Amino acid sequence: MAALKNAVSLYQQLKKEWNRKPPNVEKCGNILSKLKIALLELSFLPTTDSKPNKRELIIARDILEIGVQWSVQKGDIESFQRYMAQLKPITLTTVILLCHTREFIICLELAKAAKCFYTMQDYSTLQRRIMLMLNPRKTKGNVPAESYNFFIDILLLTIRDEIAGCAEKAYDRIACNEAARILFFNKLQELNTYADKRGWKSVDNHFVFTKEVKKTVDDIPSHDLALQAIEYARELEMIV
């Protein structure tokens, strides 16, 4: 009971600070650090030697949910993933998968199998917009909660890099205004900075892509390879 009482006391402090507008992020982080230790004394992670206590589970859930939101506020993806790993339910996890293009479809199917209707409705809509290559900046106004916008910003960068990579392979050059349109840039300076980062050259209001030169069959040093093979054969003959 003492452990639970301590956890509840810290949780009340955390909740009070987190509900402030705006919350004191650093202070919340300090309280969360203390709660990590306090939670270890509870049975929110059941073992074979203990049965879960409903009240302890509810307190732990509320603490971890604030931990998730705090991680988003801090922009700490690793912390977000750690808290989500303890929470288990599929929520913002699918968004971070989509941002990094990792197993997003599998995650969707698992959630559908679990009948997470309301949650998956949001993600299915988001997926359709991405597949149709709609401007993801418009998606920011249609998210279930403000915390989703952190991942939408990452998603924008991911989509931009994917589109740029496809453009480099498909074209030798592209008009600057067209590049700004398909890459969701409103400011020319931001576009130029991005182009410099990718090694694009600006020529006559166009960006010229630097093509990677790949070796053909004629570039293979056949003479050197033949000499090397003969040398190996001689050494093998000496060994035998």
UniProtKB/TrEMBL annotation:
Q: Gene3D superfamilies this protein is in?
A: 1.25.40.990
- Pfam families referenced in this protein's UniProt entry, alphabetically: CSN8_PSD8_EIF3K
Cellular component GO terms, alphabetically? Answer: cytosol; nucleus; proteasome regulatory particle, lid subcomplex
Decide whether keyword Chloroplast is in the record: no
What are the BP-aspect GO terms?
proteasome-mediated ubiquitin-dependent protein catabolic process
Q: CSN8/PSMD8/EIF3K domain spans which residues?
A: 139-214
The alphabetized UniProt keywords are: Proteasome
What PANTHER family does the annotation carry? 26S PROTEASOME NON-ATPASE REGULATORY SUBUNIT 8 (PTHR12387)
What is the official name of this protein in its record? Answer: Putative 26S proteasome non-ATPase regulatory subunit 8-like
